[in-house]
Amino acid sequence: MLVIDGGDKACVRLLLELRGRIAGLPDGAVVHLIATDPAAPIDLPAWCHLTGHAYLGPVTVEGDPRPAYGLRVSAAARATEAASPWRAR
């Protein structure tokens, strides 16, 4: 499992970083994303639906009280535009 600390980044920047960090991970890899942006619980499931990754819902990262969300990487995920992670190519 990979933990990514997205901190207080806005969702656009958060998704850009997430996309880059999970590129090349094996199919089925689980990622826990720490994100304090209030839009994260809305935007992350929508992005997973768009791309084909599986949204796993809220998770707890041991030793960190901030909100975190899980996803399972799909090797067959759909690509998004380089500067627009919410737009499929």
Low-confidence stretches: none
Q: In CATH, what is the class?
A: Alpha Beta
CATH superfamily: TusA-like domain
Assign the CATH topology: Translation Initiation Factor IF3
Task: Determine the strand fraction and express it as a percent band.
Answer: 25-35%
User: What's the number of helices?
Assistant: 2
Output mean pLDDT: 96
Q: Using the CA coordinates, give the radius of gyration.
A: 12 Å
The tally of structural domains comes to 1
Query: Which CATH-level-2 architecture?
Result: 2-Layer Sandwich
Number of DSSP E strands:
4
Order of helices and strands: EHEHEE
Question: What proportion of the residues is helical, as a percent range?
Answer: 25-40%
Q: Sheet bearing the most strands, described?
A: 4 strands, mixed
C-alpha geometry: globular
Walk across the major sheet and give the strand order: 1-2-4-3
Report how far apart the termini are.
28 Å
The structure class reads: alpha+beta
InterPro entries: TusA-like, TusA-like_sf
Pfam family, one: TusA
Organism: Actinomadura parmotrematis
Protein name: Sulfurtransferase TusA family protein
Question: Could you give a quick summary of the protein structure above?
Answer:
This protein is of the alpha+beta class. 27% of the residues lie in helices and 29% in strands.
Describe the structure.
The chain is of the alpha+beta class. The chain has one domain (2-72): TusA-like domain (Translation Initiation Factor IF3, 2-Layer Sandwich). Helix content is 27%, strand content 29%. It has helices spanning 11-22, 40-51; strands at 2-5, 30-34, 54-61, 64-72. Strands 1-2-4-3 form a four-stranded mixed β-sheet. Strand 1 (2-5), helix 1 (11-22) and strand 2 (30-34) form a beta-alpha-beta unit. The N and C termini lie far apart (28 Å). This is Sulfurtransferase TusA family protein. It holds the Pfam family TusA. InterPro entries: TusA-like (IPR001455), TusA-like_sf (IPR036868). Residues 8-58 form the UPF0033 domain.
